[in-house]
Design goal:
One of its GO terms (molecular function) is ATP binding. One of its GO terms (cellular component) is plasma membrane. Keywords: ATP-binding, Nucleotide-binding. This is ABC transporter domain-containing protein. This protein is an alpha/beta fold. The chain has one domain: Rossmann fold. The chain is 33% helix and 28% strand. The protein contains seven helices and ten strands. Strands 6-7-8-3-9-10 form a six-stranded mixed β-sheet, with helices on both faces. The protein has a four-stranded antiparallel β-sheet with strand order 2-1-4-5. Helix 6 links the parallel strand 7 and strand 8. Helix 3 runs parallel beside helix 5. It is globular. The relative contact order is 0.20.
Length: 221
Amino acid sequence: MIGICEVLGAGFQFDNAERRDWLFRDIDFQIPEGECVALMGPSGTGKTTLLHGLAGIAQLSEGTSKLNGTQISGISQREVREHLRESVAIIFQEHLLIPSLILFENVELSWALAGKPKNITPTTVLDRLAIGDERDSLPEAVSGGQAQRVAIARALAGGPKLLFADEPTGSLDEDNARRAMGEITDWCSAQDAHALIVTHDPGIAELCDRIVRLDEGTINA
């Protein structure tokens, strides 16, 4: 079980003309079990980069990210995938559904790969996100907002102990955004799971347990 997600002394450099600048540096924070944290800040401050570094899908320039005491930064992508597969889910800004599978199969695949968790089913999570009526449709046949709800359902169907989400409600209307966030926060509370949600929407951030702001290279809890 993943107990704590934490990042220590995290920094990320990027090329800027003829020099290398720091996007952020000396970032420390952690997410306790059962907590849903919103990460906010102006565009271009590195919110997505920090999330990717925590999740192990991007390499930090310095510092470490740990999941349940295991250092994720610096290990191979194969090791990252093995560590994340059974307990971590990621929701990207794009839904990234498999186009050849119907919506139900996209969610069912995540559920099956996670060992078919008994505390959730593909049908249940699709219905809770008000997308069950489209379960037999291909991704190309539904709207972007509907596809994004399926991506959220796919993530939750894996029964994650940790959820990383990058603007998960950006393409949703207000009602569906709140419904989706309700499912995420309810999941965290019921399963002692934790989540990091990158968002620009103050209304969505307020639904989380805590708001963290990244601005001018530093983080403020």
